[in-house]
Amino acid sequence: MMSHQLLSPKLAKLAVAALLPLACAAFAQNAAVVNNKPISKQRVDEFVQNLVSQGRPDTPELRAAVRDELIARELFVQEAERKGLQRGADAQRQLAAAREDILIRATIQDYLKNNPVKDDEVKAEYDRLAKQSGDKEYRARHILVEKEEDAKKIIEDLKKGAKFEDLAKQSKDTGSAQSGGDLDWNTPQTFVKEFSEAMVALGKGNTTQEPVRSQFGYHVIRVDDVRDVQPPPLEQVGPQIKQQIERQRLQRLQQELRAKAKIQ
Fold it and tell me: Crossing angle, helix 119-133 and helix 234-260, to 10 degrees?
């Protein structure tokens, strides 16, 4: 193969002219070249799109700033490589961790892409949750004490005309004691089973005639009000439900992989 020195001046000019379009094409694909290391325009675009998704406007000024940032990063990377810092123990650990994170994300994305959550699955889970939460909310008060005889005395005092709000100050539930035992509006599923069943059975305006025992102690419960409640629209909570289904699928994937793995 002939070297440039063996070419005639005319042929050498033609050779350079032939290479120019290739060089221009390569340069057109790059936003910058740092010590012969190209920074692609695609990399700038990806960086800009990430900022745009956070609310930044896509402007020439932003793109210039991104280009400068990527150049600065490349300079630091090249300096680290020149000094051999990538071979240090700490750098190796961080590089291994970054590789692990990237591969985990890629595995998750690939799995969800091949096992997508369908709209009818989201709707079915929405209906199940709506049914589970019930169609009523309760505004209840309670007084929580440790001993059953203390709860019975409170009930007797209430029958004699004592105010529920005053007696609630002795409640073990310090979060509600200072507000007269008020628990605000809640669905029955918010509470433990024993409390929930007693509250629902009472109805509006009634107080338990016997102490209600739970894992926390003995409750005296009064229901101040009951109202119908509608679940939020599917359009509002659909994305969260989809994410929850995806998390459940990933948990199953993890269990399947673990079951097939040889772990010692």
Answer: 110
Q: Give residue 171's domain range.
A: 136-228
For the purposes of burial, counting CB atoms within 10 Å of the CB of 171, is it exposed (0-12), middle (13-18) or buried (19 or more)? Answer: buried
* Cα 135 from Cα 85, distance rounded (Å): 63
Q: Are 144 and 218 in contact (CB under 8 A)?
A: yes
pTM beyond 0.85: the answer is no
Structure tokens at 169: 């100050």
In CATH, what number is assigned to the domain containing residue 43? 1.10.8.1040
Rounded to whole angstroms, the Cα distance separating 247 from 241 reads 10
Interatomic CA distance for residues 100 and 117, integer angstroms:
26
Asked whether residue 238 is domain-assigned, the answer is yes
Residue with tokens 């990806």: 46
Residues 27 and 81 in one domain: yes
pLDDT digit string (tens) for 17-33? 444 454 444 556 899 99
